[in-house]
Amino acid sequence: MLRRLPYRRTPRAPRGRRRRIPAAAAHTRSKPQARGPSGYAAAVRLATFLPPGTHVPRAGTVLDGRVAAFADERPTVLDILAEPAPAQAAAAHAGGPSWALEEVTLLAPVRAPRAIFGIGLNYADHIAETGGEPPERPLVFMKLPSSAAPPGAPVHCPEVVRRLDYEGELAIVMGAGGRVAGYAVADDVSARDLQGREPQWTRAKGADGFCPYGPWITTAEEVPDPHALRLRTWVNGALRQDSNTSNLIFTVPELVAFIAETCTLAPGDLILTGTPSGVGLAQDPPSFLSSGDLVRIEIEGLGVIEHAIA
Prior knowledge:
The chain is of the alpha+beta class. It has two domains: 62 residues; 193 residues, Fumarylacetoacetate hydrolase, domain 2 (Alpha-Beta Complex). It contains six helices and 18 strands. Strands 1, 2, 3, 4, 5, 6, 7, 8, 10, 11, 13 and 16 form a twelve-stranded mixed β-sheet that branches. A hairpin with a 5-residue loop joins strand 10 and strand 11. The longest helix is centred in the last third of the chain and has 9 residues. The N and C termini lie far apart (44 Å).
């Protein structure tokens, strides 16, 4: 049961120190494991993919540049997320065929999440560049299940949209019992013209394919601290965003607790935690996405998604 957290701006952690996560709301950590040079444990990465030569999706894990399907074809990534211990559940289903990562086509880990929650204005530097005011409580909006898209799928801009923008974000992936099951990389694609003139952001943020995410789900116990991850976004090779999740105003446990006060959080649900400075709207002059542009987003320890604008 998540305890209720006070609604306040969380002060930025001093450089070199990690923010203390309230134990009641933090994700459950596994026992210490051997770590590589980067400081990360041998992560369990859950993926949905198309093996070569077939159009039938399979679920499995990614390790050392290879994708290994589960031995049984029936379990999906959503099934694994619904288990009390996803990493252990994935290990129990191991034993299927494997392929080199470049041989498969990665799909959205959960094809159509039941709910995609977005968080607005959750980095102080992004608030400053957009001229906004720091919120007293998290600003929550919704994307639709149809917004979810594979990590490499092209984004199609609706004809009504003239100012298409990117937002590189850390995505929380929910598991059983209202717990955080893992994390992924996401692009909160946004139509700035619609966002500016419509007080509700459903059309501006929830269009079809406006949430490419993945490339897989890294299980929560394998991430030492979700508030200490470098986040970078490039457009056509030019670095646009370079920040760290230590700069989040509202932390992962605070966001989960806030949403859970009124909404049931189910396995596979996504919470996009907000974007740092460097969005196209804030460039001088503003620089919006157009057909043929390539967006690349990387979060330390979680992987890379890269998609074109159709």
